[in-house]
Structure formats: C-alpha cells, structure tokens
C-alpha cells in the first residue's frame, strides 16, 4: 500500500492538547480529507497511522512526523492539498512525500530530539553568566539525576543523554535554552527536567516548571554527528 510520510506542525493554539486528543483531531481531519486511508483488519479496524512520538501536554512541535497508509495511489500534490484543507486550526502541513514500504517506522528510526525551552528569569542575570552555566554543564563529566515516575525511580547520568553543547540566550528577562536529547530505551529525560537540573545544580535563576517547551527537530543522529531527517532518502534504508 502507498505509504505517506508527513511533516506537520502542532502550533500554540494546541499546546495544551494531549496526545490522544491530538490523534483524534488528526483522524477527523483525515476523514474530512476524503483520502483513501487504509484500515487494519478485524473487529476493531483502525486507520493505519503512526506518529514519531507522543508529545507531552504543553509541548508544541515543528516538526511532528506521521506516517499514513493509503489503500490506493493518490498524487502527492492532491493528497497534500486535501489534507491541508481539512486540518484543524493550530495544525499545519509543512512537507511530505511517499516513502518505500521497507523504510523503518518512525519510532524505530528516530533516536534524537531537539527542544527549545523558554522561561522567565527570577533574578538579574547576564549573558556572560548564562554562558558560564552552559559551559559548566557541558564540561561536567557526570550529572546524576533521580527520575521519579509513578511506576519506578531510576538513577540516570544526564551526561549520557545530552550529546552536544547546550545553547542559550537572554531576551527581555527571559532565558531560552536549546538542548538536544537522545531518545533511547536505556533512559531519557524531559526538557522540563533539564530545566530543573540547570536551576538546582547549575544555579540558573529560573523556577522549575515555569517554562514553555517547543520541539524543533527530530532525527536519527549517527555516531559521527550526522542528522538523518525522516524525509531524507537515507531514512528509507534498513537500520
């Protein structure tokens, strides 16, 4: 069956829409588009649609990738036009293409996400002081963190989860941190947890939880630092 990979944006009006509600909104849009969506077999048939991840409540994303299987061929331009017209306010179609059936699923392909986290400073702070915080974080050989979830408590070394230097800027008493995070089964942290670590362990004058998070990149990051985006030709090769 034709397999359509789409890059969409979940914008500010939908920041606080949960993933399940977002999925329902997209399913309604797909129905409105009248595209020949493929369905699974059985008593509880569902659309053959998958996403790169389940975004946390309060997170916007540009991009957010989704794969949609069709039951018959439709020229991409026609499919994109029909879907774009059916999307709810707060969702935009930004790119897309048909991909090979052998292409890895999004969840298997992606191992890296980049986020932009912004929040108010709670005290006077200069750009030089911010760069000192970021440098100390980047040079730390180990950054222990206790991750508490409803099911268990885990001890993580954040140093192994952040593969590249942090970036930051201050503007109008707000600080913005850009961070890349590995996404693996071995362990991961949320951008809000990174924000908390910078506040508690590196003296960044911000309040835990007082921040807005936007995802700005998802990719497969290779050992040499190359990024393979889900719509790149290389993303269709077997892993």
CATH class of the largest domain: Alpha Beta
CATH architecture of the largest domain: 2-Layer Sandwich
Order of helices and strands: EHEEHEHEHEEEEHEE
Apparent shape: elongated
The unreliable regions are none
Pfam family, one: DUF2344
Protein name: DUF2344 domain-containing protein
Organism: Negativicoccus succinicivorans DORA_17_25
Structural features, described:
With 239 residues, the protein is α+β, with helices and mostly antiparallel strands. The protein folds into 2 domains: 1-100, Pseudouridine synthase I, catalytic domain, N-terminal subdomain (Alpha-Beta Plaits, 2-Layer Sandwich); 110-219, Alpha-Beta Plaits (2-Layer Sandwich), CATH 3.30.70. Helices cover 23% and strands 32% of the residues. It has 5 helices and 11 strands, in the order βαββαβαβαββββαββ. It has helices spanning 19-33, 76-86, 106-109, 127-139, 191-202; strands at residues 3-10, 49-51, 59-69, 91-99, 112-120, 144-148, 153-157, 167-171, 174-182, 212-221, 227-228. The strands form 2 sheets. Strands 1, 2, 3, 4, 5, 8, 9, 10 and 11 form a 9-stranded mixed beta sheet that branches. It has a two-stranded antiparallel sheet with strand order 6-7. Strand 6 (144-148) and strand 7 (153-157) form a beta hairpin. It is elongated, with a radius of gyration of 20 Å. It starts with a strand and ends in an 11-residue tail after the last strand. The mean pLDDT is 96.
Report a brief summary of the structure.
With 239 residues, the chain is α+β, with helices and mostly antiparallel strands. The chain is built from 5 helices and 11 strands.
């Amino acid at each position: 069956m034709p397999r359509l990979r789409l890059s969409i944006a979940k914008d500010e009006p939908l920041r606080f829409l949960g993933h399940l509600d977002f999925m329902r909104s997209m399913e309604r849009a797909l129905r409105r588009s009248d595209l020949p969506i493929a369905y699974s077999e059985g008593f509880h048939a569902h659309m053959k649609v998958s996403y790169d991840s389940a975004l946390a409540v309060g997170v916007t994303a540009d991009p957010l990738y989704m794969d949609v299987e069709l039951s018959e061929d439709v020229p991409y331009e026609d499919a994109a036009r029909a879907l774009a017209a059916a999307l709810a306010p707060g969702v935009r179609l930004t790119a897309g293409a048909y991909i090979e059936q052998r292409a890895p699923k999004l969840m298997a392909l992606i191992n890296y996400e980049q986020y932009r986290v912004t929040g108010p400073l709670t005290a006077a702070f200069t750009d030089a002081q911010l760069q000192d915080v970021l440098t100390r974080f980047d040079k730390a050989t180990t950054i222990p963190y206790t991750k508490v979830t409803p099911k268990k408590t885990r001890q993580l070394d954040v140093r192994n989860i952040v593969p590249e230097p942090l970036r930051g800027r201050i503007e109008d008493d707000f600080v913005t941190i850009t961070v890349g995070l590995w996404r693996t089964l071995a362990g991961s942290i949320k951008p809000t947890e990174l924000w908390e670590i910078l506040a508690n362990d590196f003296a960044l004058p911000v309040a835990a939880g007082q921040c807005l998070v936007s995802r700005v990149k998802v990719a497969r990051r290779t050992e040499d630092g190359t990024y393979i985006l889900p719509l790149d030709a290389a993303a269709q090769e077997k892993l």
